[in-house]
Design brief:
Elements lengths: L19 H7 L11 H10 L1 H15 L9 H20 L9 H23 L6 H6 L6 H27 L11 H25 L3 H14 L7 H7 L4 H9 L1 H15 L10 H21 L9
Helix pairs in contact: 3-7, 4-5, 5-7, 5-8, 5-9, 5-12, 7-8, 8-12, 8-13, 12-13
């Protein structure tokens, strides 16, 4: 009579047997999807810099691929917005009476604020709108909001060409101060990226934020001196001190002021508001560093649930 012999059970663990955690540490194993240290995370992002730039360029190219005018909409959209604002604020509300060279003033403000506005909106949907990619591949998730902000920077650079043409057409000649555009854009890009990283983390858990943000951004635009001069309003009205400080320190207004100073105000020998460069650097560091750390702390949660 044949007998079926069962395999012998594994010997019980003894006090001297290594635990699973000890075995994992001994053989260099780590938890799948665990958050790396901050220096390691930065190194991973740097190693994927080519992916970030290629992804941004591909998104920019595909953005208007279905439109007949294609990439021309990158320039036409902010110009059409500027035309609408000129009619409503410049003509109907006559805000142009307080501003010399109102058209260059307005177009510069629209282009600069659109850069921040589009970066924030893209960051809000960076994770929630790319869940397939996030769940399928392992890579530092900050690559997505950074690439979206880089896409908006590329779009702004396209828009700068007609902006410079408008300046020349309205009698604003090129000056050495135009070189200040480079550090201004670098600071604004850092600020936008940090803000986009914050919104990407919030939007990954609460997608409804994407529906709320257009109202927040529209209010922010009206308070940033895009269509009107903050200096003229502060000179004409006795506003509470707290409101004055908020208007002058508003980060969007700070970067708009710097860009207008570089492109327009130096031609008229106007002076910048007090400490505006300090505010620009401070906002860039606060948003850039703070936003990056805030996003990194939730790295292992993106794409789950």
């Amino acid at each position: 009579m044949s007998q079926v012999l069962d395999a012998a059970p594994p010997p019980p663990a003894t006090a001297t047997s290594p635990s699973p955690a000890e075995l994992a540490e001994r053989y260099g194993l780590s938890v799948s999807g665990a958050r790396p240290s901050l220096p390691a995370y930065v190194r991973q992002l740097w190693q994927r810099r080519h992916f970030i730039t290629a992804f941004a360029t591909a998104k920019l190219t595909a953005q208007y691929s279905q439109a007949k005018l294609g990439q021309l909409w990158q320039v036409m959209t902010p110009l059409l917005n500027a035309a609408v604002y000129y009619f409503i604020f410049g003509v109907l509300m006559n805000t142009k009476r307080d501003v010399e060279d109102y058209v260059p003033f307005l177009v510069t403000g629209v282009f600069v604020f659109t850069f921040t506005q589009a970066s924030v909106m893209a960051g809000t949907r960076a994770i929630s709108g790319s869940l397939g990619l996030v769940r399928a591949l392992h890579f530092p998730r900050a690559s997505l909001p950074i690439s979206y902000c880089l896409q908006q920077l590329q779009q702004l650079l396209f828009s700068m060409c007609p902006l410079l043409v408008i300046l020349l057409c309205f009698g604003v000649p090129p000056t050495p101060a135009w070189l200040l555009v480079v550090p201004v854009l670098a600071l604004q890009f850092t600020f936008n990226t940090g803000l986009a990283l914050v919104m990407a983390r919030l939007g990954s858990k609460t997608p409804d934020i994407a529906q709320l943000m257009p109202f927040v951004l529209r209010t922010w635009m009206y308070a940033s001196g895009v269509m009107w001069s903050i200096d003229a309003v502060l000179a004409d009205r006795h506003l509470p001190h707290a409101v004055t400080v908020l208007l002058e320190c508003n980060p969007a207004a700070v970067y708009i002021d710097l860009m207008r100073f570089a492109l327009i105000d130096t031609f008229h020998h106007d002076q910048l508001p007090h400490l505006v460069w300090a505010w620009a650097v401070g906002w860039a560091l606060l948003a850039g560093v703070g936003g990056f750390i805030y996003f990194w702390k939730a790295e292992e949660t993106y794409g789950r649930g």
